[in-house]
Design brief:
disordered N terminus; 2 domains; mainly alpha; 10 helices; 73% helix
């Protein structure tokens, strides 16, 4: 009996140019905010006049422009604005730069009641956006790639199962154990807590399955075959674990979608109240 190695093909790629792009922008924003923080008492920026005032206008416009991505995504009539992928890139950049400009506009202070409402609202939405970005990368091929599917990961597990070359006597028991493991781990979770429990228990489940699969093969393999089997077995079990985690991240992403947009609408309302109050009073 021998086990052959197969190259992983199914799972979505992580990172890529998009991740580096956002990392560079985020690093620049952090550097600028750090410098502004050291000079916050020097009077360089004030929310009422000068550069600080215009930073608030530009930041507010950027925050409003965040609506363009969901509108482009939902309304086919807006195809003339460009591709959805490009607007998602713009959405991610605006979601970093816009709040940063608003922080500079406030000069790290909350001097009014309406500002004390608008700024925390913006902070909550920005944090929610970062959470959404994390979840997005877990269910898509990279940051700006297409959405993956459980089938991508199951394609991995099937290819690794096919790499097992077993004697006719051993094949039924091993394949039955593989099937039982998949059915137990990939059954749709009824709740987020159930899904979380599956993800957290995944290392222990992999250990048990590996142990049970090795047991009938003891004493029947030479060292080289045993090592090849372990490599293939590990790839198979991790492919199943990735499919399991993917299903859980899909649940979380769906829940995040339900929460993020209402939070953003509340932010827009708070910002409008802030602008009206500042210019009227």
């Amino acid at each position: 009996m021998t086990a052959t190695r197969k190259r992983r093909r199914g799972g979505p790629a992580r990172g890529g140019a998009g991740a580096w792009e956002l990392a560079v922008i985020l690093a620049i924003v952090v550097a600028v905010l750090d410098y502004a923080w050291t000079r916050r008492d020097e009077g360089d920026l004030t929310a009422e006049t000068g550069l600080g005032y215009y930073l608030g206008i530009v930041g507010g416009v950027m925050m409003l422009m965040l609506l363009l991505y969901p509108m482009r995504k939902r309304f086919a009539a807006l195809r003339f604005l460009g591709g959805i992928r490009g607007w998602f890139r713009v959405h991610m950049i605006l979601g970093i730069v816009g709040p940063a400009l608003m922080v500079l506009h406030s000069n790290f202070t909350l001097a009014s009641l309406n500002g004390s409402i608008a700024f925390p609202s913006m902070s909550i939405v920005a944090i929610s956006g970062l959470v959404g970005r994390f979840l997005y990368t877990r269910i898509h091929r990279g940051l700006y790639g297409r959405r993956a599917s459980t089938r991508d990961y199951l394609g991995d597990s099937e290819s690794f199962k096919a790499a097992f070359r077993l004697d006719d006597e051993l094949a039924p028991a091993v394949m039955a154990r593989n099937k039982a493991h998949e059915e137990r781990r990939l059954t749709p979770a009824g709740s987020l807590w159930t899904g979380l429990g599956l993800v957290l228990s995944s290392p222990w489940a992999r250990f048990r399955c590996r142990r049970d699969l090795r047991r009938p093969l003891r004493g029947r393999l030479q060292r080289a075959d045993r090592r090849a089997l372990d490599r293939t077995l590990n790839r198979y079990l991790f492919a199943v674990a990735r499919a399991e985690a993917f299903a859980y991240y899909e649940q979380l992403f769906a829940l995040w979608h339900l929460l993020h947009f209402p939070l953003f609408i509340l932010l827009v309302l708070a910002a409008l109240i802030h602008v009206v109050a500042v210019h009227l009073y």
